[in-house]
Design goal:
Keywords: Cell membrane, Dipeptidase, Glycoprotein, Hydrolase, Membrane, Metal-binding, Metalloprotease, Protease, Signal-anchor, Transmembrane, Transmembrane helix, Zinc. The protein has 700 residues and is of the alpha/beta class. It has 20 helices and 21 strands.
Length: 700
């Protein structure tokens, strides 16, 4: 899981099929009989008894047993264990009686450390003698980690460049653009040719590598600072007694910068054997410098040896040292240089997506998708295996409802994606590849995104509101590539704990014990999220009219516009860029949404053609915001209202074409054409919002 702040569980989408033969068959069906006769099933809502029965059917014990099995061994993508778990999921679905269950394979560029020549960081004295070396594995702290730590993948950053780098070191805080600009412009420190050390957090680790490379660093060391992972907890609350990170814990993770293109050698296309592949040196997605993660116990030795001026107060972390910037080493230390020896190789291997289907009784060409990735850096009891354990129980509960006589109006599709940890590869391939014959060929996808957060922060009972989303998990390909929105469900932690993510994220300490004894004894929260997921899926699958409130979207467009004005209004005015067209488009969209909902109140539910027409308009709306040419410099991010921030893919930028080009224009050596690009993006966004309004009009 790339989004560090959530224990994500599911992905849900509604999908519309537009294959001609499917439409023809349905029209033939509609033309028979009367609305009160043969149309009755088409026009009836779902069975009322199912909601409570479905919730009651979901078993915490079953989720626990699923998780116990799924955390019984490591299951890294591209390994035999990863394939074995794909087979286990599909076998479970066949045993449960799903209408279809199958595995689809892809051949992907993955990345692995060399177990025979482990990567390390070393401190050397004035005679080039190595006097400190970082640990290869995390420390075993209980029986479970004693059993598995030596067999899980050793800490590394996937897609790092291999090689050896030796020289001075500079501390660069979080390695953000603003951190490097402050070092260069205010503190007079040049990182060119230096090894830099940065703490995890704030932005995606791949962007830390990208910016380190762009500012001239020769290598990057990443570590998890206790300020971000220990918070208010003390040693007594560290794993295995609690959920806080021990000093030897290391966050694994990829540093791929694919900008939504998916697998790096087949950008935009499925990674099948027949597909042309570019060479590794032809892609900008791969790092050109060595990058390696370490624990904060090892980081202490490096940071404590750095000399130079003290770091700004806000750059100081939670280690009991004076954080200094460098370059070079403190005169009181024996250390005189640092060496990175990184052994990481990229190689193509097969990955495996598993798909299960429960066919709809009335509209089998429409789909509600629930998905979760299956691969893990370690045992992955939180990320992602809790989600897989939940999903397999949700499918069992749905099939029990089918056995009792219920069947969803629309089809349900369940996806267990592979290689998410390497860059969302499995779900991206799912988007890129035409679906197998078991699903209508050429089907397009539609999801509805609503993040569970009260519209009124002071009233937790208010309806959830639409929010923007970045990237970092499997919704990314659907929403940013083909124009969808997603529901991302999960429990998170109290921010008062003072940690930036759940502390054991991507470490060797994500064990069954962590989930069963520390995070969720009795699996009550896991059961709760399974019940919520099942309710939402059924809530999209059964109603005659899809439950979408377009006024919520319209209102949020107004919020986005206000935020844009507050942040950039003065800059836009100073450069003669008018937002009148944007304001007009938002007003038109709001009027169109109001008119649509007024017409919806008077719908003739006895007319199946009218029902289908309104649902088509609801389901097609999101794609109107897609620009087929993509965002400036990021052609695979195509949604004009939301996209991962260009400088932190974990968060979303509103009107990303504008915010990206304004950021560049403010730093451009030739600002005039840069601000013309801003004006162009303003017009593109206005055009797409107006197009969306047009899709809601009464058909001619």
């Amino acid at each position: 899981m790339e989004n560090m702040s959530r224990n994500r569980v599911i992905f849900i989408s509604v999908v519309v099929g537009v294959l001609g033969i499917v439409v023809g068959v349905l029209i033939g069906y509609f033309s028979r009989g009367s609305a009160t006769g043969e149309f009755a099933d088409f026009l009836s809502e779902g069975d009322a008894w199912v909601a409570e029965a479905l919730r009651d059917e979901i078993s915490a014990k079953n989720i626990e047993e699923n998780l116990r099995y799924l955390t019984s061994k490591p299951h890294l993508a591209g390994t035999p264990e990863g394939k074995a778990y794909a087979d286990w999921v599909v076998q479970k679905w066949r045993e449960q009686g799903l209408d279809d269950a199958y595995v689809t394979d892809y051949n992907i560029l993955l990345s692995y450390p060399d177990r025979d020549s482990p990567s390390y960081i070393a401190l050397l004295d004035e005679n080039d003698r190595e006097r400190f070396r970082t640990a290869v594995f995390e420390e075993a702290v209980d029986a479970e980690t004693e059993q598995w730590l030596s067999s899980i993948v050793q800490p590394f950053n996937a897609y790092s460049a291999p090689g050896t780098v030796q020289g001075d070191v500079v501390y660069v805080n979080y390695a953000r653009v603003e951190d490097y600009e402050r070092l260069r412009d205010q503190l007079g420190i040049d990182v060119t040719g230096k090894v830099v050390i940065a703490r995890y957090g704030k932005i995606f680790r791949g962007e830390k590598a990208k910016y380190s490379q762009e500012f001239g660093a020769a290598g990057l060391i990443l570590y998890t600072d206790p300020e971000d992972t220990v918070g208010s907890g003390g040693e007594a609350d560290m794993y295995p007694r609690g959920w806080y990170l021990p000093g030897s814990g290391v966050q694994r993770g990829n540093i791929l910068n694919s900008a939504g293109a998916g697998e790096p050698l087949t950008p935009g296309y499925p990674a099948k054997d027949y597909m042309f592949r570019i060479e590794q040196n032809e892609t900008d997605a791969l790092a050109r410098i060595p990058v390696h993660p370490i624990g904060y116990s090892d980081a202490w030795h490096i940071l404590n040896a750095i000399g130079g001026p003290a770091a700004p107060a806000e750059w100081a972390g939670g280690l009991n040292i004076t954080y200094r910037l460098g370059p070079g080493f403190d005169s009181a230390s024996w250390a005189r240089s640092i060496k990175m020896n990184i052994s990481v190789r990229n190689e193509r291997r097969d990955i495996f997506n598993t798909v299960g289907v429960i066919r709809g009784r009335v509209e089998p060409d429409r789909y509600v998708i629930m998905g979760n990735h299956r691969d893990s850096w370690t045992l992955g009891s939180v990320d992602p295996t809790s989600g897989t354990a939940v999903m397999v129980e949700v499918t069992r509960a749905f099939m029990e409802m089918v056995k009792r006589g219920w069947r969803p109006r629309r089809s349900l599709m369940f996806c267990s994606w592979d290689a998410e940890e390497y860059g969302l590869h499995g779900s991206m391939e799912h988007v890129e590849l035409p679906w197998p014959e078991t699903v209508p060929e050429g089907t397009t996808m539609y999801d509805v995104w609503r993040k569970r957060s009260p519209n009124d922060p002071d009233d937790p009972d208010t309806q959830p509101r639409i929010d923007l989303l970045g990237s970092g998990s499997d919704f990314a390909g659907f929403v940013h590539r083909v124009g969808v929105s997603c529901i991302d469900l999960g429990y998170t932690f109290d921010t008062a704990l003072g940690v930036s993510s759940y502390p054991l994220y991507h470490t060797g300490y994500e064990t069954f014990h962590l989930q069963a004894d520390i995070i969720d004894p009795g699996f009550k929260f896991n059961r709760g999220i399974a019940q919520l997921a099942a309710d939402l899926i059924r809530g999209f699958a059964d109603p005659v009219i899809l439950p979408f409130d377009l006024m919520e979207y319209a209102n949020y467009l107004g919020v986005m516009r206000s935020d844009l004005q507050a942040e950039y209004g003065t800059d836009l005015t100073n450069h003669g860029i008018s937002s009148d067209s944007l304001d007009s488009a938002i007003r038109n969209f709001t009027d169109a949404a109001q008119a649509f909902h007024s017409r919806l109140q008077g719908i003739d539910k006895n007319n199946p053609f009218e029902v289908r027409m309104f649902n088509d308009q609801l389901m097609q709306l999101e794609r109107a915001f897609i620009d087929p040419l993509g965002l400036p410099g990021r052609p695979f991010y195509r949604h004009t209202l939301m996209a991962p921030s260009k400088h932190n893919k974990y968060v979303s930028d509103p009107f990303p074409g504008l915010t990206d080009t304004i950021f560049d224009a403010e730093r451009s050596a030739d600002p005039a054409p840069a601000w013309r690009e801003v004006a162009k993006q303003m017009s593109i966004i206005a055009f797409n919002i107006q197009s969306a309004a047009s899709t809601l009009m009464m058909p001619a």
